[in-house]
UniProtKB/TrEMBL annotation:
Presence of the UniProt keyword Ribosomal protein in the record: no
Matches recorded under InterPro entries: Calcineurin-like_PHP, Metallo-depent_PP-like, Metallophosphoesterase_sf
Keywords: Membrane, Transmembrane, Transmembrane helix
Source species: Lepisosteus oculatus
Record domain Calcineurin-like phosphoesterase: where: 208-382
Lineage: Eukaryota, Metazoa, Chordata, Craniata, Vertebrata
GO terms, molecular function: hydrolase activity
Annotated protein name in UniProt: Transmembrane protein with metallophosphoesterase domain
Ranges annotated as spanning the membrane: 86-106, 112-137, 167-185
């Protein structure tokens, strides 16, 4: 194509990204059922890595032009500028390499390579955002100034510091990276929330449900972090524990010893799990279900259980869970959100608590079944790091915290118990949620707001 060579590099990279995305759609919609499970998992992961890296390449080209070539042109060629270009190249290479660690560096504890590459990925996102924002603000300033400003300045005065905005973007990125790493290294906060649950039996008034989500065991989250979480949960002495997806970023084999602390999690009425989108990215969901059962964690695969107290078996509520929405998108055989199946056998006269990883699934469930009393979700991480909090807020019907829907339904979205990949938190805090269930027949059901927060 003669016109293709004239396109800017960013446009060519965008076209390549589109081709990779198209190949993902074809293989997952047409070839999925025809490929053996092991091969399918490897293919999906390879396609995911290609897509993410080709998408990132668009931003990398922009960063290279602004931060490496642009700043060095301003300072002139020297040994220092060559070293600076090499540093930028290493930074971009590390950011692109982060997702590769999912394939080769998953072990009992995070490796320094995984932590460094994912830190670079977080800094990459922050830097790209501020390069865009400061560049846009600079262009807006120039437009507002117009010809009047140009006429009042001496020749060349406007270009005396043409890259000052890029230096500022680098400075802000470094500061936020340090802040994010310090915040991400903190233990999750324990947040106590009282939630009225419509139709909840009086015997369950003040029952304690501990909510976990988005632990993301993998290259940057290992066994010691999970041991700390289990210890914090056990100190709360919960009646139930719910893990609402994204427990893992890898397959079962490299994480068998990492997940062992889950065996020691104590809950009087059981520990329950539903899939998140990242479980389906591993391509190993059914083996995860089998493995979790050996750890006394019960998967709710579009299913439900009757939760009753040993001393009062006649009073119970329905705890249900649905597969993540991504299962249908990925054409994952035997999986996909099926609310009717998940609630089969749940009486409309009893309280229903639903575990659904994504807030979009919570919204869909309440539209189909407004009699659901409470939906517990995760997925958003409350953005995890700024500026990702902006799209996370705009693209989800529920972002973080407690929401009332209709007259008697609630949705609680946890910001997550750890983090995904990037070991940073900016503008958010990891959380273990201690939910106190309140019965309408209990002595006090007037509260539904966030209560005590403890570090």
């Amino acid at each position: 194509m003669p016109g293709l060579s004239k396109l800017p590099l960013e446009a060519k990279v965008a076209m390549a990204t589109g081709l990779v995305f198209f190949s993902m759609l074809v293989s997952r919609s047409v070839l999925s059922a025809r490929i053996p499970e092991g091969t399918r998992a490897k293919l999906f992961r390879l396609q995911f890595l290609l897509f993410v890296n080709s998408l990132m390449l668009i931003g990398s080209v922009r960063i290279w032009k602004r931060v490496a070539v642009g700043l060095c042109r301003w300072r002139g060629e020297s040994c220092l500028t060559h070293c600076w270009k090499l540093a930028v190249l290493l930074f971009l290479t590390s950011a692109h390499s982060s997702f590769l660690t999912l394939l080769v560096l998953v072990s009992e504890e995070p490796s320094w390579i995984g932590l460094v590459t994912y830190t670079c990925l977080g800094s990459y996102v922050i830097l790209l955002f501020f390069l865009f924002v400061f560049g846009w603000l600079d262009q807006a300033r120039k437009l507002l100034a117009g010809s009047r400003s140009a006429a009042s300045q001496a020749p060349g005065a406007a270009d005396r510091h043409p890259k000052r905005k890029d230096v500022l973007a680098i400075g802000v990125t470094l500061a936020l990276t340090v802040l994010g790493l310090l915040n991400g290294a903190q233990p999750p906060a324990v947040v106590r929330v009282e939630i009225p649950v419509h139709k909840l039996p009086p015997s369950f008034d003040n029952a304690k449900l501990v909510l976990l989500s988005d632990i993301h065991l993998g290259p940057t989250v290992g066994k010691s972090r999970l041991e700390m979480i289990v210890s914090m949960v056990n100190q709360l002495q919960p009646d139930m524990v719910a893990i609402v997806g994204d427990l893992t970023d890898s397959q079962v084999d490299p994480l068998q010893t990492v997940t062992e602390p889950l065996r020691h999690m104590k809950s009087r009425l059981g520990t329950y799990f539903v899939t998140g989108n990242h479980e389906y990215y591993t391509g190993d969901v059914d083996r995860w279900f089998s493995h979790l059962k050996t750890l006394n964690v019960q998967p709710l695969h579009n299913g439900n259980v009757r939760v009753a107290l040993p001393e009062s078996s006649e009073e119970w509520f329905c705890l249900a869970g649905v597969d993540d929405l991504e299962a249908s998108v990925l054409q994952y055989p035997g999986h996909g959100m099926d609310l009717a199946r998940a609630l089969s056998g749940c009486s409309t006269e009893k309280a229903i608590i639903l575990l659904a990883h994504q807030p979009h699934a919570a919204k869909r469930a309440l539209q189909e079944r407004p009699d659901i009393s409470l939906v517990l979700s995760g997925h958003t991480h409350a953005g995890q790091i700024f500026p990702l909090s902006i799209p996370a807020y705009l693209l989800n019907p529920f972002f973080a915290g407690l929401y009332r829907v209709g007259d008697s339904s609630f949705v609680y979205v946890t910001p997550g118990t750890v983090y995904y990949g990037v070991p940073m938190r900016i503008g958010s805090r990891a959380e273990i949620t201690e939910i106190i269930l309140k019965s309408p027949s209990g002595p006090d059901t007037s509260t539904g707001a966030r209560g005590e927060r403890a570090s």
